[in-house]
Write a structure and sequence with these properties.
Layout: H1 9-17, H2 25-37, E1 41-44, H3 51-62, E2 66-70, H4 77-80, E3 82-84, H5 86-98, H6 104-111, E4 117-119, H7 121-126, E5 135-139, H8 146-158, E6 160-163, E7 167-170, E8 176-181, H9 189-192, E9 196-199, H10 205-215, H11 221-235, H12 245-257, H13 265-275, H14 279-285, H15 288-303
Parallel strand pairs: 1-8, 1-9, 2-5, 5-8
Antiparallel strand pairs: 3-4, 6-7
Helix pairs in contact: 1-2, 10-11, 10-12, 11-15, 12-13
Length: 307
């Protein structure tokens, strides 16, 4: 059963934290406004910072169905909206011929009915009944081309699509739309203007520790602080791909599986592949560089006042 939308920014932050998503106030504000105004939410940021997770959390917290359109190069209307089940249509034609039913007009009407329509994510999101509008996640839009972006403008403006054989299908209640982009290319301004925009950056140290506490409560507090300090140091360096929050959580999980209660040079070197995803970055960090960072953060933690 769908739940009511949050009535304030604080309520939105509580809604997200209830699903173990620790958002800063700026993000909670734009999520609240997107829900209140019924506008799509366009989220940009590096991979692994929690953009996709926002849509999942909203669906869970609001009791809505999550419909996900995973974007890729070459994505078109057939994969995003609908396509006809040609195999089933051909079987229907063969059966009609075998039965001697040669009324072409009737047959044409029959085979282009909803019975033979394969509904893809965008159409599924628009056809939801009033009061049960889903969360529509259009993930990694920057992977598609400009032609698909142009098509998406109609969907986001009027929340409707046109199927030539059936007519225009409009949403009784617009879905909650979350669009993400890793900014591998610029998305056109015309699409961004239809959305509320937010850049999802890396969290500061305290918020990242809070994220670990919420998502990986089994991790020792001391280990979580060391992990976050190490990851934050890596992000300040010159890496091809800095680790995101997703990698931080994966690393904490891996360390927990190894029964680690504190970081040491050997453990860091052995598990860098959990944290970093490019060999050049691993080579740059392993050995003396990892030890230098580790020594530095342990010295800093040692000087912190104890709670």
């Amino acid at each position: 059963m769908p739940k009511p939308l949050p009535a304030s920014i604080d309520a939105t932050a509580m809604l997200l934290s209830g699903e173990n998503y620790i958002a800063d106030r700026a993000l909670a504000t734009v999520v609240f406004l997107a829900l209140k105004m019924g506008r799509p939410l366009f989220l940009e940021g590096e991979a692994g910072v929690g953009k996709t997770e926002i849509a999942k959390v909203l669906a869970g917290a609001l009791g809505r169905r999550l419909i996900r359109l995973q974007c890729y190069e070459g994505l078109d209307v057939n994969a995003a909206v609908y396509e006809w089940n040609y195999s089933a249509q051909m079987i229907e034609i063969r059966l009609a011929e075998a039965a001697g039913e040669l009324d072409r007009e009737r047959l044409g009407h029959d085979i282009f009915s909803e019975r033979f329509l394969t509904k893809r994510p965008l159409l599924q999101a628009l056809e939801a009944p009033k009061g049960a509008a889903p969360v529509l996640l259009i993930d990694e839009l920057d992977r598609t081309d400009e032609a698909f972006e142009a098509f998406l403008l109609e969907v986001l403006s009027d929340f409707q699509v046109t199927i030539p054989e059936l007519g225009t299908i409009a949403a009784e209640e617009p879905p909650i739309v979350v669009i993400t982009s890793n900014r591998t290319r610029e998305v056109h301004d015309a699409l961004k203007r239809r959305c509320l925009y937010h850049w999802v950056g890396y969290p500061d140290a305290e918020r990242e520790i809070a994220i670990i506490k919420a998502r990986r409560p089994e991790a020792p507090a001391a280990l979580a602080r060391e992990v976050v300090s190490f990851v934050q140091s890596l992000r300040q360096g010159e890496l091809y791909k800095a680790p995101g929050v997703a990698e931080t959580l994966d690393w904490v999980s891996a360390l927990h599986e190894l029964d680690a209660i504190s970081l040491d040079p050997q453990t860091v070197n052995d598990t860098l592949g959990v944290l970093l995803k490019y060999q050049d970055d691993i080579v740059r960090m392993e050995g003396s560089e990892a030890k230098r960072i580790l020594d530095q953060i342990k010295a800093e933690i040692a000087t912190m006042p104890r709670a």
